[in-house]
Every structure is written in C-alpha cells, then in structure tokens.
Write a structure and sequence with these properties.
- This protein is α+β, with helices and mostly antiparallel strands.
- The protein folds into two domains: about 55 residues, no CATH class; about 80 residues, 2-Layer Sandwich (Beta-lactamase Inhibitory Protein, Chain:B, domain 1), CATH 3.30.1450.
- The chain contains five helices and four strands.
- It has a four-stranded antiparallel sheet with strand order 1-2-3-4.
- Helix 1 runs antiparallel to helix 2.
Length: about 150
C-alpha cells in the first residue's frame, strides 16, 4: 500500500515539475524544448522519489500491536511490533525480570545496565536491522531507545 502511495505521490510531483518547467521555458527558443522538459522532469522525479523511499525507511511500515507471546515465539514477529512496544512505554519502570518475561533475554547485556535487542524489520524493498536499547538503573528500566543498527 505504501509503495502505491509513494508512486502516486511521485507521479503528482512529476506532473507538477513538468508544468513548472513548461512555464519557465515557455518563451525560450530551444530546438528540443519538449525533450528537455521531459528529461529534466524525469531526473527530478527519480531524485525526489529516491529521497522519499530512503527516508521512509526511517519510519516503521509494519505497525502491529505488541503481544508478548508473539514476540517471544519468533524473532520474525518482532519488527512488526517494535513501534508499538516503543510508543506504549510498556517497558519503562519495569524490573529486569519483568522485561525478560515480556520480551526475553537481550542479545547483548552490558553490565546488567544496558541491554540491546537486535530486531530485523522489512519494507517493500529490503530488510532493516534495528536495535532496541534499554537502560537500567537499580534494576529498573529507565530509558528505551530504538536506533537503526550499523551493519558492518
């Protein structure tokens, strides 16, 4: 669905750019004016759509309600529920035992104060790895953060 919206938005932008270029070049006496307008419009269309697609990866496409049993059942479910888990602030204030009961053991545990869960999400084009980072003070979760993972 999102892909269709992006394509439609891109086509609208293409049409607007075409009209603007036609207006700008209306009094120019160029040999291949229509060809120039079409080529410039397509270049702008591809550039703008590429930016839209790139930045749309920063947001979560798959938004499902967090359910602990589904989260624990399979890592493939986690990307779909990550946004809801984060937005609900469900983990804040929970003890480390409660967090483990809800979302399992972390992939990385730094001194029992910083936990990292590696989450694989996807969109229409590729897979994106996120890190769900939890910070604990006195065995209570005080901070939850999501970052795009740096893949080396």
């Amino acid at each position: 669905m999102r892909l269709i919206l992006i394509i439609l938005l891109g086509l609208l932008i293409l049409f607007i750019i075409y009209i603007i270029l036609k207006f700008i070049l209306r009094n120019k006496n160029l040999k291949n004016k229509n060809l120039i307008i079409i080529v410039l419009s397509l270049i702008a269309y591809i550039s703008i759509n590429s930016l839209i697609l790139y930045y749309s990866d920063l947001f979560f496409d798959n938004k499902k309600e967090f359910k602990s049993e589904l989260w624990l059942e399979s890592k493939s479910n986690r990307g779909d529920m990550l946004y809801n888990l984060y937005e609900s602030n469900l983990l804040l204030g929970k003890t480390s035992k409660e967090v483990k009961r809800l979302i399992g053991n972390p992939d990385i545990n730094k001194d029992n104060e910083k936990w990292i869960y590696k989450i694989l999400s996807h969109n229409e084009f590729n897979f994106i790895e996120y890190e769900l980072k939890l910070k604990f003070v006195n065995k209570k979760c005080v901070k939850v953060k999501i970052e795009k993972a740096i893949v080396e």
